[in-house]
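Reviewer comment 2.1 asked that we show a complete input and output for one of the modelled complexes. We chose the alpha-D-galactopyranose case, as it is the one discussed in the main text.
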Amino acid sequence: MREILGLRRTRAAIAAGAAAFFLCGLLLAAPAYSQGLAGRWAASGKTMENGEVPKTILDIKQDGNNLSGKLTGLGYGVDVKGTATGNHFELFVPEWDMKKPLIVGDLVNGELHWTQWGGALVARPATAADEFPKLAYLDPPALHKVPNNGLAKTPPMGWNSWNLFAEKVDDKTVRTMADAMVSSGMKAAGYIYVNIDDTWEGVRDAEGNLQANHKFPDMKALAGYVHSKGLKIGIYSSPGPRTCGGYPASYGHEAQDARTFASWGIDYLKYDWCSAGNIYKNDALQPIYQKMGDALQASGRPIVYSLCEYGMGSVEKWAPEVSGNLWRTTGDISDTWESMMANIEKQVPTAPYAGPGHWNDPDMLEIGNGHMSDDEYRVHMSLWSLTAAPLLAGNDIRTMTETTKSILLNKEVIAIDQDPLGKQASPVKKGDLETWVKPLADGSVAVGVVNLGSAAASATLKSADLGLGGSVKRARDLWAHKDVKFVGGAYTATVPSHGVLLLRVSAK
Ligand code: GLA
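Response of the prediction step:
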């Protein structure tokens, strides 16, 4: 969950968003009921960073104690269901895996007072003035193959603002983060991209050019600063009219926005489906992503293209056709063992589709954000490297502990991720132990054994199972930074609970 627009929301809000935004345009025509809970209610949220005041529209039908309806915000739209007890009501989002109601409220003097994502909202019967602007439906283009942009021959490495800063990212944060990328050794270790995620957006000017909001007074100057450090800079948008955070996005402005990004000196674009799901069905994913793929190439600037649509529509099968360099395979990660492991498991079926220039992305790193143990963060780094995932740090690079540094800056582990062969390892599970083997360009293999159990366990690796084609010449423990010995073709070690043994093994 993230604090945004004065409310807390989950990424699922967006993945689940199909249809509601658009349908709401039609539903708006229905008259507002003035009695009971049923009706169409509109609440204003906290003023956004670009000066806009976001609306939340709740459309409820009541049948006795049962409530059903739709909740629509600027960047999302979802079905809700719940119950009423007198004037009190609670609403859940069935598509989200939520144990608690999203909305809890009361009818008070003809107003709905509710809390949602920790924020308090007051809604009144909606009027025509509350309507979301109607947008022309733009037909998805015919499919064609967008030429490969030649970028990201190894998985992109860098930093992204979202996991820790969310809407608090600003020019100063990015500059100081760029400084820290250099002083901490992150740049030297290969972390090159400094990526601004959602909430940088302002409004469009009279010519339709998207401007940054007050937090980013001069995006071109900021890009120049980041470049002056020998780093590259990334930005974020959506193919829908709004980003997940509700900010203006690239719908109908694809070519113009790509030119704007190029003129600022942007090197990387994360393009997040969000409210596009309220306009298009999944069969439009490829043509809609193709639109921006074309636009980026027409901009004349090499820009890494990062697709973010949470793995819908078998993205791994067509993303390279739209010149995608990486694509999310999952919903949003959070800083927990369960979330991190769920994301990496979801990435497993996509293994055959990873390779130089095009990577599966199980989301950004949480290492150093404080809610997992050091062992768990070592598992995180090991699994992302074994699966050739992009390594985009999501912590505060300026204040890393020595342990966090030892994890993010482990060059021997980074070398597994950045191996030029670009193979994505797959797991074999035996009891609580999961073994991942990744073939490497020099004929050696990386092998990771993760202990999913709640107690330390003994793991035995047999050289015959590693696909080495010979007996072991050298085996190195990449977290202990020491060579180890296979005896009689086997190596046994204790792996802590939620910990990992990671070896690089070469054959004679
Ligand atoms: C979605 C993405 C996240 C982040 C937010 C920003 O949830 O999946 O990674 O970009 O939007 O609003």
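Confidence is low (pLDDT under 50) at residues 1-35. We note this here for comparison with the apo prediction described in Section 3.2.
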